Amino acid sequence: MTSNQTLHATAVLIGAHAVLIRGPSGSGKSRLAFDLLQAAQNSSNATLPFARLVGDDRVHVEAVGSRLLVRPAAALAGLLEVRGLGIRHLAYEPVAQVGLIVDLAASDAARLPAEMAETTSISGVILPRLTVAPGEAALPLILAWLATQPVSPSAMSPD
User: Fold this and answer.
1) Which of 138, 133, 126, 123 is nearest to 63 (CA)?
2) For a 10 Å CB count at each end of the chain, is N or C smaller?
3) Which domain holds residue 42?
4) Which of 22, 17, 14 has the alpha carbon at shortest distance from 43?
5) In which residue ranges of the chain is pLDDT below 50?
6) Is 114 within a domain?
7) What is the domain count for the chain?
8) What Å distances lie between residue 141 and 6, 32, 74, 109, 126, CA to CA?
9) First-to-last C-alpha distance (Å) of the chain
10) Which letter does DSSP use for residue 92 in this model?
11) Which residues pair with 78 in a beta bridge?
12) What are the DSSP E strand ranges found in the chain?
């Protein structure tokens, strides 16, 4: 079974999976994509071994079984808006499997997010979700999400 939809979002392939970046207009989706691409290019560690643009501003997602695939909108493939420079051409991936949803300027962002806020469903596919508060820097949160493992609530109980 497949399900298709178009989203006002940006996607960047990091390693084997894409980060799908959502948020209101002007929230920094394109900027975060560029920051991720630059971090991978300048990285000397394994946190960001590879990053490539999938699509900016508008992407198509398709649920295929338990996977969510993302593709650039055909008219925007290989294009990224860089504020202050305009639209720029970049290498891009024609399709990627989504592994993380990042919601910028999220009203439900919290210092210690509730377990139910840590996932979301798109086209019936449940994916990990990272919420970023308005004005908060998203790149360090994504790098921490990629490089660390969560602690289970039972591990926090006293001895």
Assistant:
1) 123
2) C
3) 2-149
4) 14
5) 1, 156
6) yes
7) 1
8) 26, 11, 30, 12, 20
9) 48
10) B
11) none
12) 2-7, 9-14, 17-22, 51-55, 59-64, 67-72, 79-82, 86-89, 96-103, 119-122, 125-131
Instruction: Report residue 94 as tokens.
Output: 């024609």
* Phi, psi (deg, nearest 5) at residue 109: -65, 140
> In the chain, which ranges are continuous DSSP H helix?
29-42, 138-147
CATH code at 64? 3.40.50.300
Q: For the chain, what is the mean pLDDT?
A: 88
Residue 156 lies in a domain: no
Regarding pTM above 0.90, the answer is no
What would the pLDDT profile of 32-76 be if each residue is shown by its tens digit?
999 999 999 886 666 777 999 999 999 999 999 999 999 999 999
- 84 found inside a domain: yes
Measure the CA–CA gap between 110 and 80, rounded to whole angstroms.
Answer: 30
Q: Which residues of 32-56 are buried (b: 16+ CB within 10 A; e: fewer)?
A: bbbbbbebbeeeeeebbeebbbbbb
Two tokens, residue 21: 């970046």
Q: Given this model, what pLDDT does residue 4 score?
A: 84
Tell whether 125 is covered by a domain: yes
Q: What are phi and psi of 84, to 5 degrees?
A: 95, -20
Cα 140 versus chain centre, distance: 13
